[in-house]
């Protein structure tokens, strides 16, 4: 009697849940764009050290003094700047020797290559994609192409076409966009740079089939018990009603 009553109560409780949870999810309120505040001085070093993690990129900018070129552009021009910042994980996916073997000049060029000497908001990229190739700070042959497929923006270098994964900062005259790979121009890398082996996928091969077998077994069992559970729930519900009815009758009598 006791366990059945508890079971009944929990089923009735569960049945009452969905309606109450669906009622408490109103659509997100529409926020009107607030008037943009007056642009203030942006210190790129500070910006990159709090966002990210972009520590690897920032270290290279400081080491090559490219940071000064970029900061001067921010301070002293009306054109502004658009910087593409690879995440730390993007650098980690390269082999150490990919950048480690570059000369100091090549390294400097590579980081100058990660910025346009002009501010572009994300909405400018559609139009910008009609002006390929686009000049970078590295000048000359060091150009990038941009593509914008319904908002999916890719920055096309020769060996890597990363996408913009987020806008870190975008208020004229400074735009900083996160990208998921390091840009790799063929003028620096004559062949495609090797990628570092991914660290996680190092499981012994003989373990893999056994693991997938275990993983798939409960899954199929789960789906079949899912049907069985809903079936028995309906059954128990009828039991509950009969029980409640008889209990009420007993109380009356
Ligand atoms: C930006 O900040 C860093 C450290 O916070 C400082 O060393 C640097 O001089 C600042 N640069 C400018 C242009 O103000
Ligand atoms: C940029 O401007 C800031 C603030 O006006 C100043 O402190 C800094 O020295 C300037 N840096 C450069 C490289 O012009
Ligand atoms: C990079 O330099 C190391 C020695 O510092 C050398 O053994 C290696 O072959 C070089 N790799 C490439 C791709 O040039
Ligand atoms: C679009 O790009 C062209 C150059 O290709 C430029 O002349 C024009 O002003 C741009 N239009 C807008 C709305 O940015
Ligand atoms: C960039 O675009 C130009 C013009 O469409 C094209 O000629 C060039 O091959 C492209 N470069 C890359 C690296 O895709």
From TrEMBL:
Residues 1-23 form the signal peptide. SMART domains: FAS1 (SM00554). Residues 196-226 are annotated as: Disordered. It is a lipid-anchor; GPI-anchor. Residues 41-183 form the FAS1 domain. It holds the Pfam family Fasciclin. Keywords: Cell membrane, Glycoprotein, GPI-anchor, Lipoprotein, Membrane, Signal. GO terms for cellular component: plasma membrane; side of membrane. May be a cell surface adhesion protein. This is (wild Malaysian banana) hypothetical protein. It comes from Musa acuminata subsp. malaccensis. The lineage of its organism: Eukaryota, Viridiplantae, Streptophyta, Embryophyta, Tracheophyta.
